[in-house]
Design brief:
By secondary structure, the protein is mainly α. The protein has 14 helices and four strands. It has helices at 19-36, 48-51, 60-73, 92-101, 106-110, 113-119, 127-141, 155-172, 182-189, 224-232, 250-262, 267-274, 280-304, 307-335, and strands at residues 6-10, 41-46, 82-86, 145-147. Helix 1 links the parallel strand 1 (6-10) and strand 2. It is globular, with a radius of gyration of 22 Å. Bound molecules: adenosine-5'-triphosphate (ATP) and magnesium ion. Adenosine-5'-triphosphate (ATP) is lined by residues 12, 18, 20-21, 24-25, 151, 195-197, 206-210.
Length: 339
């Protein structure tokens, strides 16, 4: 069924997204999807079973629709190879997760740094947070996905997925396609070192949505004029010369980076335009106005997309996903003499 290769991405449901999330994760993914969807399947799924690990959110359903709208507003082109689906609507994910639980070991899950970080010092830790890398392996292996564009924080989980698939194939015969190694994933994504938009107030750090300081981050839902003010109040430095130097002048470099990305211009061009200038205020004015225009356009695209449009895409996507996933699940069940 899946004769074309599959690229798979799951973006956590976020009702709110920063400009950093957009420029560093969503936009590169949309570009990648647009580049490859003529000859590859592009599976864009909402990991809603992952979303319930630490909180039960009454807004989940609505937020999930909003997250998918972001892809369209960011320019995702829909064709017959692009599939939207919810993890919870494809029961094979949970089924395969259970079977892979019987292949994975406590030791290898215990080594996951994300689990270690999230459970450290806590008296009570849910099983969900411990086991979620196995569900992630199921998310990937059901579709023979080779490329899963994820951040560095997920590389260890990709390695685990590869290991579980190899172990399974070794014990039960060739069943799973082994996903590409993290270093090959990076090459495929062609995003270089990865983009890290900095915190506007504290540019040594990256911009994060969980930072409570409103001026540190630009949200996609910010009023465009408010976002412009945040740029105007961004922390810079006292060097007095515009240069692209993330180490010594992270604030200024961050502004140059943002200016390039929101205008879809090569960073080098923006650097050449501004290098050597002394007036930080002029640069801030320019970036503020670019960000304002960018948000105005983005928000007006977003408003044009209806919930119905998303639910229609989910209906088609979930039919496709169930078909593909069940074929793989049945093969796995057969290997385990469950069928
Ligand atoms: P949190 O503060 O809750 O960790 P976050 O803003 O770091 O939120 P995540 O949900 O952790 O966002 O990450 C979503 C995606 O956005 C990931 O692919 C991550 O690599 C990317 N991302 C996060 N922050 C930035 C940033 N400042 N610049 C570029 N990409 C980013
Ligand atoms: Mg984060």
């Amino acid at each position: 069924m899946t004769t074309s290769p599959t690229i798979l991405t799951g973006m956590r449901v976020n009702s709110e997204m920063t400009l950093g999330n957009f420029l560093g994760a969503l936009l590169p993914m949309v570009r990648l999807a647009n580049t490859h969807s003529s000859d590859s399947h592009v599976n864009i799924f909402v990991p809603d079973l992952h979303s319930i690990i630490d909180t039960v959110d009454g807004e989940l359903r609505q937020n999930l629709v909003k997250s998918l709208k972001y892809y369209l507003a960011a320019g995702l082109e829909i064709n017959q190879n692009v599939h939207f689906y919810r993890q919870s609507r494809v029961p094979a994910h949970s089924e395969l997760c259970w079977i892979l639980n019987c292949v994975a070991t406590m030791g290898e899950l215990n080594r996951m740094t994300q689990y270690k970080d999230k459970s450290e010092g806590k008296e009570s830790v849910g099983v969900g947070i411990f086991d979620y890398p196995v569900l992630m392996a199921a998310d990937i292996l059901l579709y023979d996905a080779v490329y899963i564009p994820v951040g560095e924080d997920q590389f260890q989980h990709i390695e685990l997925t590869r290991r579980l698939a190899e172990r399974f194939n070794h014990r039960f015969g060739e069943t799973f396609v082994i996903p590409a190694k993290p270093e090959d994933q990076i090459k495929f994504m062609q995003v270089g070192d990865g983009i890290r938009i900095r915190d506007l107030q504290n540019p040594e750090k990256k911009m994060s949505k969980s930072n409570h300081a409103e001026n540190s981050k630009i949200m996609l839902s910010d009023a465009p004029s408010v976002a412009a003010k945040k740029i105007m109040s961004a922390t810079t430095d006292s060097v007095g010369k515009i240069q692209y130097d993330m180490f010594n002048q992270p604030g200024i470099s961050n502004l140059l980076q943002i200016e390039a990305l929101v205008n879809n211009m090569p960073l080098q061009d923006v650097i050449s335009t501004w290098s050597g200038e002394a007036r930080y205020g002029d640069l801030k004015q320019k970036v503020a106005s670019s960000v304002q225009t960018f948000l105005e356009n983005f928000q007006s695209h977003l408003a044009e997309i209806s919930d119905e449009q998303i639910f229609d895409l989910l209906a088609t996507g979930e039919t496709y996903a169930n078909k593909v996933a069940n074929i793989k699940l049945h093969a796995v069940q057969t290997a385990f003499h469950l069928r």
